[in-house]
């Protein structure tokens, strides 16, 4: 049986690790061919090699417009089209109080988290306009909706991605291009654990990710941490023609985090029934 993404070509930024890597694997297993665009050459090349002729790696710094343009060109020169652009690369961004944030730190954070998405959409759209079809997905976050889960600028960038998704959806819909974003909650990945595979090595990062997995298991209605594969499944749906009527949306994938405090953590006056005796 053919996969639901058979014949489609995708670019996944941040595809060497975490949510991006899981999405690369999922898209390929659904039949797509994928360009992995990432800063981390080792893990990116390793993943591409493992996936064989369905994947290629290109060194990319998404903070640079030229690199984003080159990642799109890698897809079109190799496979002649681009059906799916997943703007996913990310970092935690600058931390600490407002008065200690420098202009350079502001720019470095916003360039990776927001500028990259804008230019990802800019360079994917001409190819998709020619095809009169395409699906653009970007990774926002639950931090777009609630302050205090991520740092200030991280949250601001993610909220901006939600609005960018809407503005681009109404513009690009004229050419049959859909634009959506995914908003993950706590996902057990290197980013959420304070390190990268390249900096710390796969084993040490693996231990840190396991600690994140345990620490966040109880935070949401579904009592386990989110996994990169949970997000990948949503991206694969948004990439596919099964979501043909869905555009301009921000889709939560958070185990119920944004729905509210889990029942098991509610005070007893809300969860215990008080039957008033009749009469
Ligand atoms: N893990 C979570 O809990 C969580 C929750 C909500 C949103 N997100 C978002 O998910 C996305 C993926 O993060 P992840 O959790 O999978 O982390 P991750 O660290 O596993 O993956 C992020 C990838 O982005 C790459 N990257 C970073 N800066 C880059 C740059 N300038 N150019 C190219 N590649 C770059 C990294 O090398 C890495 O491979 C990010 O946008 C992040 O903000 C993560």
Question: Briefly, what is this?
Answer:
With about 280 residues, the chain is an alpha/beta fold.
Secondary-structure map with pairings?
Layout lengths: L8 E5 L4 H12 L3 E6 L2 H11 L3 E5 L5 H15 L4 E4 L15 H29 L2 E6 L12 H21 L4 E8 L5 H4 L3 H4 L1 H14 L12 H12 L10 E4 L14 H4 L8
Parallel strand pairs: 1-2, 1-4, 2-3, 4-5, 5-6, 6-7
The structure holds nicotinamide-adenine-dinucleotide.
Nicotinamide-adenine-dinucleotide binds next to helix 1 and helix 6.
Descriptive account of the structure:
With 279 residues, the protein is α/β, with parallel strands linked by helices. It has one domain (9-257): NAD(P)-binding Rossmann-like Domain (Rossmann fold). Helices cover 45% and strands 14% of the residues. The protein is built from ten helices and seven strands. The protein has helices at 18-29, 41-51, 65-79, 103-131, 152-172, 190-193, 197-200, 202-215, 228-239, 268-271; strands spanning 9-13, 33-38, 55-59, 84-87, 134-139, 177-184, 250-253. A seven-stranded parallel beta sheet has the order 3-2-1-4-5-6-7, with helices on both faces. Strand 2, helix 2 (41-51) and strand 3 (55-59) form a beta-alpha-beta unit. The radius of gyration is 20 Å and the shape is globular. The termini are far apart. It binds nicotinamide-adenine-dinucleotide. Nicotinamide-adenine-dinucleotide binds at residues 13-14, 16-20, 38-40, 60-63, 88-91, 112, 139, 141, 184, 186-187, 189-192, 196, 228.
């Amino acid at each position: 049986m053919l996969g639901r993404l058979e014949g489609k070509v995708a670019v996944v930024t941040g595809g060497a690790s975490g949510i991006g890597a899981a999405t690369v694997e999922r898209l390929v297993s659904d039949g797509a061919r994928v360009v992995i665009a990432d800063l981390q050459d080792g893990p990116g090349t390793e993943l591409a090699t493992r996936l064989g002729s369905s994947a290629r790696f290109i060194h990319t710094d998404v903070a640079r417009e030229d690199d984003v343009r080159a990642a799109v060109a890698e897809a079109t020169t190799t496979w002649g089209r681009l059906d799916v652009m997943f703007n996913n690369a990310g970092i935690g961004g600058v931390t600490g109080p407002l008065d200690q944030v420098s202009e350079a730190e502001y720019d470095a954070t916003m360039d990776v988290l927001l500028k990259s998405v804008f230019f990802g959409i800019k360079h994917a759209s001409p190819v998709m306009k020619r095809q009169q079809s395409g699906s653009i997905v970007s990774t926002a976050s639950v931090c777009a909706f609630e302050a205090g889960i991520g740092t200030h600028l991280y949250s601001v960038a993610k909220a901006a991605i939600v609005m960018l998704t809407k503005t681009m959806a109404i513009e690009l819909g004229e050419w049959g291009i859909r634009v959506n974003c995914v908003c993950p909650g706590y996902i057990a990945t290197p980013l959420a654990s304070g390190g990268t595979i390249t900096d710390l090595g796969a084993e040490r990062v693996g231990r840190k990710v396991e600690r994140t997995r345990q620490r966040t298991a109880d935070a949401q209605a579904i009592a386990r941490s989110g996994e990169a594969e949970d997000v990948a499944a949503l991206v694969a749906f948004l990439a596919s023609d099964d979501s043909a009527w869905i555009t301009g949306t921000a889709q939560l994938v958070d185990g119920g985090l944004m729905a509210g405090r889990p029942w098991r953590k509610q005070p007893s006056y809300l969860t215990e029934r008080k039957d008033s005796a009749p009469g």
